Amino acid sequence: MSGFRRKRAEDAVSELQDTLVLLAILIMAVLLIKNLVGDNLILSLLDFGKFKVWGADNEVSYPSDAPLVTIINPPDGSRFYADHYTSVSGSVQTIPNRHASQVYYRLNGGPWVRAALSDNNWTGEARRYPEGSYHVEAIAYDSTGMESPTASSAFETIWRPYPDAAYMGDDIPEVMTAGDPYSVHINYSNTGYLSWNSSGGYRLSPSGSTMSLPPIGLNTQVEPNISHVFSLSMVAPSPGDYTVGYRMWCADYEWFGEEFSKKVKVLESYHDARVVSMDMPAEMTVGETRLVSIVMQNMGSAAWFAEGNGTAYLWMVDGTSGAAYKFNGSSDRILMAPGSVVRSGNNYTFQFTIKAPSPGSYYTQYRMVWDGHYAFGQVAGCTINVKALPTPTPAPTQRPPASPTPTPEPQYNAHGKMTLLHINGFEYTGPIRYFYDGPLGKHFKKSSRGASSDNDPRWDWDIGGPNGHYRIYNDVDGYSGELQFEMNNGGNKGKVVFRQQ
Length: 501
Prior knowledge:
This protein is mostly beta strands and 501 residues long. The protein folds into 4 domains: 68-158, Immunoglobulin-like (Sandwich), CATH 2.60.40; 165-267, Sandwich (Immunoglobulin-like); 273-387, Immunoglobulin-like (Sandwich); 412-499, Immunoglobulin-like (Sandwich). It contains 2 helices and 37 strands. It has helices at residues 2-37, 39-46, and strands at 50-53, 56-59, 68-73, 78-81, 89-93, 100-107, 113-114, 116-118, 121-123, 132-142, 151-158, 165-170, 175-177, 181-190, 203-206, 227-235, 240-250, 254-267, 273-279, 283-285, 289-298, 304-305, 312-316, 333-334, 341-342, 347-355, 360-370, 374-387, 412-421, 427-428, 433-438, 441-447, 461-465, 469-473, 479-480, 483-486, 491-500. The strands form 10 sheets. A 5-stranded mixed β-sheet has the order 4-11-10-6-7, with no helix packed on it. A 5-stranded mixed β-sheet has the order 20-28-27-23-24, with no helix packed on it. Strands 29, 30, 33, 35 and 37 form a 5-stranded mixed β-sheet that branches. Strand 29 and strand 30 (427-428) form a beta hairpin.
């Protein structure tokens, strides 16, 4: 019988050795293929940290050169409020010439989550932890694939009333023009347990913003489950790409709630205008008054404002000495309604009253002006013939010969392609600032529309005016090249190529 019992013991030892060898081979295979098959298989295999042999739990043994992972935050046994944002984090210790390659952690026996690594320090996602007790486990791998023993710690969160906020919407434009003012709004909802008020220091403060912005305070109390619209007046900075960011803040809890972030592109400011239509009479009688209108479209990037730094208005060409002024006599400016703002691409209708002067033929002209800077855009022009009042007498009288009627100069449009060649030889096909001279004056500033090919029926540049000699050039930005042409009733006048110096 003793030989039989010895035989059973030897068979049991042999079976144990075979099982341990099989487990060792399995672990080595997992470590060798974990970088090839991704995290899913690793996470599933991590779910058994102990192996059952003959019904008993047996801890896996680790060699002396295995990495060691520690959990630093939250500290083991710590206790804090449930509204507190925190992240599970720690470090990995490895032997020389090795470094941490992967770290996983889990809470209360849940799924394993891969942590972010920086050198040998690891960090999990920052979040709130609802009221309760938490058991944290972490495991690490070094650069050779060797696994660490499992580290563990525990913490507890307790509840208290706390503020919270949810971003609801905004009207901040994604494209702005440098120097233009904007009135914008950001809507947040109070989703917490406390009221927002100025006495508690509640405000919407810049967070993660690359654009210089002020905090926005409260002038009212916002109760839970109520939304509030924060208003802001801002001026777009210099051209470039920016991020506008805000988040709620108060004195007792500091930052809380969702963060608002938006990408904004600020463009270079330039002015341009196009004549859309004119409602002007061809004939009037001396002393007669008419309500007339001119519709202008903003073709530049800069907005037109009725007042302030960007004030724009419709100007009577040649001022008080021009023909248009004779139909007004009090001012050579036609202003927009107070508070008006005309953004790029929008139209504005200038309505005003004219009064016929002495008999004659008058060629009236109107053009947009940026106050204190320059006139810009197409000229709106028309001829008005003013007739004398009939003489109330039965006897015929000899009327003096009428003065010759001046022939109005027709207005035409010339257009063509415009490109910029960089120093490296690449062609830029976007909008290009340029200047032109013509019969109406010199050094008018415009910008090409850009983005059309040489064979496209549209065009990059267009200039309006009477027949005569024109010259297109750029004399401020270090470009070479120009185009000179005769208007000759408009049409395609060719290509302008500017070369970067």
